[in-house]
# Entry
Amino acid sequence: RRVLLLGEGNFSFAAGLCGAPGTHVVATCYESEEEAAGRGGAARSIRRLRDSGAEVVFSVDCTKLKEYFLPGEREFDCIYFNFPHCGRKAGVVKNRQLLACFFHSCAEVLAEQGEVHVALCNGQGGTPADQPRREWHNSWQIVAVAAGAGFVLSDVHPFKAETIHGYKCTGYRSQDKSFCVEGALNHVFTRSTPPLCLTPMSCKTQLGSQKVSFQVPQVLVDKINRGFLELNSSHPVRTIKEKLSAGLSQAFPLQNISSCLPLLHQGHLHGVCHSNIFWIALSPGEAPSTEGTSQGLANAVLFSHFDQDTDRNVQEGCPIPKQFYLRPSLLPHAQAIIQTGAFSPGTLHVLSGPVFRQCRITPHSMPVFHELLVVLAVSRGTENSCIQMLVDNIKTTTSSLHQAVSGVKPSINLQGATSFGAELNDFAAFEWQLGEIQHFICVATDPDHSGCCVGVIRTAPDELKSSELVVVSASLNLDLLAMLLCGISDWRMLWTSDRRFLQQFPEGELRLFKSFSLYPPSYVHDVSFWVPDGEEFDEVAFHTLARRVSGEMVVSIQLRDSFQQPGTGRRSLCYRVTFQSCDRALGCREAAEMQLRFREEIQQHLGVTLR
# Structure
């Protein structure tokens, strides 16, 4: 390991580190050798360093590091900068500028998996780890400053001066005087994954009897075909799916539907808000024949929640509307299985895969998530006991998983549709649109909260056109379950491309997630505009544009003000947009550029007039 130490005052910290097996130390300071040797104890520490084989370099500017090392010697595994300061009575602004230049310089000499350690006095960093915490404007804002150079804060812990043998801090106001390090913190930074460059992407899928290709919506380019549920995946959503399936197989004969489920559906949706659907235009020349889509469309009607007029048109040979959309649910695929006659009463049929829904931006609202759908035909009159068996099984498996991860038993409740007490999240709200719901499955990992809806249960008395059988189905949001069981606060983390996420989950195991990006900075921007006269403002489209422009870097959108101009009746809206990443570095300049692009996009696509 090559270790670089910057801004050494009397070299006592470097001397305390030298001699460690497998470590090559390069100790530097800003002053000349003559100036540095004049500090108390410095000459002795320098001698010790050189005797142990360490390098000692003088007159090193921490903002121009690559100038001091040959290209083959720039790959440092660890860079230490203890108590940086511009000197004398420099204020917070100058010290922020120093850190900004330092981090940019580090990016040029740090190994890919390397770390940057910065020790600051109590309160200087401006993070919640500081106790007491300074006001943001009066701190060095170290996490935001580092983000501008592509670094994230991965760890923060007390700076324990007493553990470094012979260490003595010095340099108070550029003098050979010590300063107080009580409550000081060591901030550990790592490289962030680079910004996503999302190029337009085409995808092929089966529609009826034909294969078609389509342009993937920009907001989904990094989420399509990720393979989280495939056999070689260690992703927590697959682990949860496998554990739930194993538990259900103990109570029911189980059949996994392994055939490739098409991503596209076609036709009109009845009762579903169209702004919640990802509408798709097929690639030029890809429009399938009427016969091919008729069969595909006839299979895409379940529990009478899709438009029956469309199905009737198909049966009567009328022209089919060319409306395609990404599947918002796996229910139509279960319907197709039932209609083929391959549906065995008493056997639990299990389907799983990603589904796509446009939605507002919240930490638990997902434009794509993995659905686990189980469908079972039971004797009429036994459906209630069957539902209870299903729920008890899911409850047992989920409780066991959460207890193994956190040591705490969660509260899992079955709530009737008429007495639903938990917050109606976007998942539950959309499921309500899809058709009648008998029960909601709610999970609460915190006793102070009523719980989060992670699943719904439906019955379809007439689905099999049988007087003896009833179809029971349960739909579960695997992504929400993974968040609750593994302590993941933001759904976006499930889709990160950063390898450090999956490294925390060995195949077949669930663990409590530890974030590798602590206290990410947030940037608040407001946007206000006039809404086109006589038009209803589509807030879901507004949120979707924010997702697309920012690459999922918007964490919150809040309506701050709604104003109607007297006389003209014109309506103005003002929204507060908060930019924050959960997994990679986001600097203030990048956030400001996103805001400018967002303003342009809403003006172009939503027809608003900016104020």
Q: What stands out?
A: The first helix runs from residue 12 to 17. The domain at 2-191 is CATH 3.40.50.150 (Rossmann fold).
